[in-house]
Amino acid sequence: MALLREGLARLLGDAGFNVAGAAGDLPGLLDLVDRTAPDAALIDIKMPPTHTDEGLQAASVIRQRYPGTAVLLLSSYLESRYASSLLEDHPASSGYLLKERVYDSAVLADALRRVCAGECVIDPGIVSRLLGRSRERGPLDELTEREVEILGMMAEGHSNSSICSRLVISPRTVESHVRSVFMKLGIAESPESSRRVLAVLAFLQA
Predict the structure, then answer these.
(1) What stretch(es) of the chain map to CATH 3.40.50.2300?
(2) Hey, which end of the chain has fewer CB within 10 Å, N or C?
């Protein structure tokens, strides 16, 4: 664990981030956030002493106590329930990535910048699993195949411009699909919440 923390700190430093510090357990992490007020906290889900879900607990506490600090959870396994649990209570400025992604500095840097900007970022592996799982019929079944594809990309944290580039479609077409997704999921425009985040949360919980 110590080697992983040191490696990530070096990786983030090389990517241009200012690393405020590192902690090995939940109390130490909360104390570090309290003292340094970082823009984001990168948290392993499995922390001492039980190595079960202390990281998830830490993320929830940080989002509640320190709304100015985004959180990005790391896990060795695909666990959509962890992502859903975090986003259900604190959907904005939160993310979940597999540890294997963090060794690509560009992917890690992009995810951190996105959560700091108030977005939610879900690992593509989880999105693929959710798209392929069997479930009861619900609002998602009203979406077209293209709308489901775009919602999945929104869940991964892609902006409209990024979706345009990846799908090779016009901005107006993407905007039209996104509006349709919001309408079919019953997500009304509100100054208190991000409709993109609420759409992703509906996707995770469906």
Answers:
(1) 2-128
(2) N
